[in-house]
Amino acid sequence: MIGSRAALVGIGATEFSKRSGRSELQLAAEAVFKALDDAGLAPSEVDGMVTYTQDTNQEISVARETGIGELSFFSRVHYGGGAACATVLQAAMAVATGAASTVVCYRAFNERSGRRFGQPDARLGGEPSSQGMEMSWHVPYGLMTPAAWVAMFARRYMHAYGARSEDFGRVAVAMRRHAATNPAAWFYERPITLAEHQASKWIVEPLHLLDCCQESDGAVALVVTSVERARDLRRVPVVVAAAAQGAGAEQMMMTSYYRDDMTGLPEMSVVGRKLWEQSGMSPADIQTAILYDHFTPFVLSQLEELGFCGRGEARDFVADGGIEIDGRLPVNPHGGQLGEAYIHGMNGIAEGVRQIRGTAVNQVPGTRNVLVTAGTGVPTSGLILTG
Amino acid sequence: MTAVTQETVHQLAERQIAVGEVRGTPAADPVNLPMIRHWTTAMGDANPVYTDEEYARGSVHGEIVAPPAMAQVWTMPGRGRDEKGGTPVDDVLAALDGSGYTGVVATNCEQTYHRYLRLGERLEPATRMTGFTGPKQTALGEGYFVTWNVSWYSSGEPVAEMLFRVLKFRPRERKPQSGSSQPYPLRPAVNRDTEFFWEGVRKGELRIQRCADCGELRHPPGPLCPKCRSVARTHVVACGEGEVFSFIVHHNPPVPGLETPFVVAVVQLPEGVRIVGNVVNCLTEEVSIGMPVRVRFVQMDDELTLPMWAPGGS
Question: CA-CA-CA-CA torsion for B49, B53, B59, B60, nearest 10 degrees?
């Protein structure tokens, strides 16, 4: 079992901005230095590196830049933001098997000032790869932005369960409320109201602008090592109680419109089952959740898939501040990607670590176990972190 | 269009021609002065014999008469009014619509007037289908010529006749583009697993992959049958109808080659598979889940045709 063999011992991040003014490789290196300093480890003690297939910085490039010497393990995880928690899974497996002793996971990009994922790219459908073939059933019709892909699910979800745009809006309001008291957040001191959410322009109906996360420049790095080694380091070890990936039957990259149901995230259900099984926990054991929030509707779906509420009941769950700091399940106390920054889910893992350490700016009192998820609508991953 | 369907439409047309003359719904109103006044005003016909009672009394008619060219006006059902029974031509036109010959253009209209009509006469139309030819290659696209004759009766006496012919054609649609000769920028990748689909689209067929061994239908298609592992692939041609399963209205950001807002839907086909495409020919606010739609083949540029969906169904 992967559970409780590895621990997160260091986190590091650059500032979150719209224009970093430096290369993605520099951002990666800065975040790695901060994470190693946080852990109290020297670069030379790192022997493994994991990132996303989408990251433009090769493991060896970051290693070269940061003075990390020899590597005995390097790996990448595919499927966009779905890779986030899986980088830690890879690291934990490497540590558990002895493939590496200390692994750095990182994600660095100029997603706002450089290549913006939300902009249509006509080349998406042109690739004769299996993913290009998949995209070819959608791109020619202009169905080619993440917001559009998610909106197609959201419309069906609304139809099936009577959810309304306001229900999605409550997620955005909660995230922005959290970000408003997080000085690292781009939307620090800028909360929104539900009326502002409703008045924001259409991106892709049924999604308003404020249903969509921001675009950010920045980097986050994490350091993973064995639980034994973690006990000797300067920080309270944050144990990876469970780590899992998940893909559903008939899975596609953001466009799984051809399976029976279009109202859920079966891939997150796979992740949830594995997490509960590995950790021996249940939703009642989780005090804080970091749910991937690139688009608000999938926060509702995740609450359902992970068992925090029943199917179609998430809108009741988020009503009356249910996912705010003082609610029944505080979600994304840092403000999430809607409020803090869009670092492809890696900033959420860092927040999970802070919540366990008890050092978060919006600390949820009594947090012992945190559930963290990665990108939704894609093959994804998740973690349960514990003290 | 397959040979089978061609034969079916021809057979249907022959049957409808054999039916002969079918009486239609009598005129809602008798020949009347207000309608004549509207019509002559609209047409710019100032002849006082149609509207001036005193003048008409002194004319050869001795009373007001209706312009002969109004023959068709008296029995037109009007928009939204149900025409009971219909005509022998209706089914043929509907069958052509259903086979993708959705375009229509009137090619001939020849009217014969036996006498002038007087105020108070109530006309009754009767229609017989008289001709069906095709498929013909025309400048508008492949199509069929459908001909019918209408006779108008006043108390059983024939007073006017009309021969009417239309060309029902498969529209060669073209997306309006800013730079007209620009190729459409959003192109699908095509490989040996998906080639059959795009070849079908060019021929006006919506093809669904079918396993030649176990018969399983599959869309999007792939190299083999996940159910029985067979690589023997064939396809069926979808009937072209569907229902909106989910949809989006794209506003931002701009998408190359398309004008916003545009609608994309997941369409559930009665064959049991789903397919994604644009919903066209209707206002974005009119699209809803469950809406019946029918496939249309839209030519995007010289090489690419895309299947899209328009409101309508059986």
Answer: 90
